[in-house]
Amino acid sequence: MVGAHDQDGGTLAVRVRGLRKEFGDVVAVDGVDLDVRDGEFLTLLGPSGSGKTTVLRMIAGFELPTAGTVELGGVDVTRRAPFERDVNTVFQDYALFPHMSVLDNVAYGLRVRRVGRRERTQRALEALGSVQLGGFGARRPSQLSGGQRQRVALARALVNRPRVLLLDEPLGALDLKLREQMQVELKAIQRQVGITFVFVTHDQEEALTMSDRIAVFAGGRIEQVGTPADVYERPATPFVAGFVGTSNLLAGEAARQVVGRDGTWSVRPEKIRVEREDDGTGAAPDDRHGTRGTVREVVYVGSATRFVVDLDVGGTLVALQQNLQTSSMDVQGLRGARVRLTWRPEHEFRVADEASDPAVPVPDPVP
Amino acid sequence: MRGSRRARWTFGAMMALGLAFVYVPLVVIVINSFNASTVFAWPPKELTTRWWVETAHNPSVRAAVVTSVEVAVVATAVALVLGTLLAFALARYRFFGQQAMSLLVVLPIALPGIVTALAFRTGFRTFLGLELSIWTVAIAHATFCVVIVYNNAVARLRRTGLAPEEASMDLGADGFTTFRLVTFPLLRGAMLAGALLAFGLSFDEIVVTLFTAPPGVTTLPIWIFQNLQRPNQAPVVNVVAAVLVLVSVVPIYLSQRVAGESTGGGRI
Fold this sequence. Notes:
The structure holds two protein chains of two kinds. Chain A is α+β, with helices and mostly antiparallel strands. Chain A has ten helices and 18 strands. Helices cover 26% and strands 30% of the residues of chain A. In chain A, strands 6-7-8-3-9-10 form a six-stranded mixed beta sheet, sandwiched between helices. In chain A, strands 13-17-14-15-16 form a five-stranded antiparallel beta sheet. In chain A, strands 2-1-4-5 form a four-stranded antiparallel beta sheet, with helices on one face. By secondary structure, chain B is mostly helical. Chain B has one domain (56-261): MetI-like (MetI-like fold, Orthogonal Bundle), CATH 1.10.3720. In chain B, 76% of the residues lie in helices and 0% in strands. Chain B has helices at 5-32, 50-57, 59-92, 98-110, 113-127, 134-160, 163-170, 175-203, 207-212, 220-227, 234-261. In chain B, helix 3 (59-92) packs antiparallel against helix 8 (175-203), helix 3 (59-92) packs across helix 10 (220-227) and helix 7 runs antiparallel to helix 8. The longest helix of chain B has 34 residues, at 59-92. The two termini of chain B are 27 Å apart. At the A-B interface, strand 6, helix 2 and helix 4 of A face helix 7 and helix 8 of B. Chain A: InterPro entries: AAA+_ATPase, ABC_SmlMolc_Importer, ABC_transporter-like_ATP-bd, ABC_transporter-like_CS, Mo/tungstate-bd_C_term_dom, P-loop_NTPase, Transp-assoc_OB_typ2. Chain A: Pfam families: ABC_tran, TOBE_2. Chain A: This is ABC transporter ATP-binding protein. Chain A: GO terms for molecular function: ATP binding; ATP hydrolysis activity; transmembrane transporter activity.
């Protein structure tokens, strides 16, 4: 068996080509090509209904594609049942077996693969230990908190040492603190075990924090695949620019006046400096691009303040300023004030217009 | 909800009155079955187990108990198989006529018993040309027992959803192993609860039994009905009635406990 390879010569854990799924009249997935490298943490990011979960379920084998293929480690598994694929899933609602103890839940995959009782108990205990649930084996899932159930689901999947672990919004049901803690832990576990993770989320911050690469989904298609920095700093389409971060688009006449060129341009909020119009010389320094406007909204978010500014040239920009010297009292007074917004030209990036530029890179032809 | 003191008192009193209305007559029957007086002077001056001993040795009562148990066991077994299969079909698959089908399955419990009973009698004798027997009684009972089993099973299947089965297959179990280790254990409690209720329902049924039983096939409720007018049998009738109360209450109590336990006490 020869594994499929990507351009850099790395082995591909998952290779998806021309994947399509229709539910009745609804096209949930509309021609998806995706490569997941061995050992990679890849996130499928998109709003609900964008097809990311359906792609995950087709990789797991729960849905049969209408068209297209799924390969795992170079082997076409498109028509294989879930139990004939070397992948395991962490489900959104965990899907623990309520009638079994935590230990039996974790040992289940080994049990149905006929691993001896002694060995499977030992490996299940180890897996529970690795998710900090060493003493919980005898409990029922109903006796655990949400975060603990999440860890059991993770241990239950990881104990089988799958080639690929699929995670379907596994942190969605947790509160913010636990969520952030689990993001760090998940990433650490993934580095430690070296298993390929395919992670589904609609939370762009989560995606940026955890992923090696991100595939951004919209309307059943992939808009862009790239590293978090690629996707955030150089979004390929207006959709990506808007979904990952705040959109901050300058188009048409505004773009010509401010950027000096045609097309649709964007600047991330934290790159923009906000100054009162009456401060300083009144003109933008030569090395910065800038424009003027009126503050419509001031949102104090603790460490920083978000300004929503209506531009004189048309359009709206959001700027984020660290609260280094200011306090909430100072910034609240700025609502309605005239301000000047400036940024360094290298922080502008051009956003492809949907019609003119193909956002999705053309994949390698299927051999 | 927290009502005012007065509202709570009023609700409490109404509740007590309602419960008393239902349960006092039942308690009277049970107490009377121990009443030493043959004319049931109230309150009982003296208690005795004499009627219970007499009932236990009464051949016609013993025959009726055996008949009732036989009918209930057969009806429950048929209902268990059909009800569970129907629940799977209607909860797990999408097909044409599904809505109508699920209505048809539960309809027998809503139809007037006397109509069902008459329909069965006519159906068995005129259309199928069958002699009425203990089997015709059991089959007739099975129709409403199916509804009970179906309702329990379908509720459980809908509540647990497909996720546990998907998780099982994802972890490497094939369809049969998944059924054995996940689907059936999760459904078992609901099936048992349904079976217990169905058994209780069949055990004290009278209308359908009257219409579908031939002379000589006497279930316990029919025995009571036949002996109600005989004054010398009154003590034994009381005991049989008390037994029927117990036989009906115990399965309901057990089924409620089973239904609560089998999911591990909570939803996951």
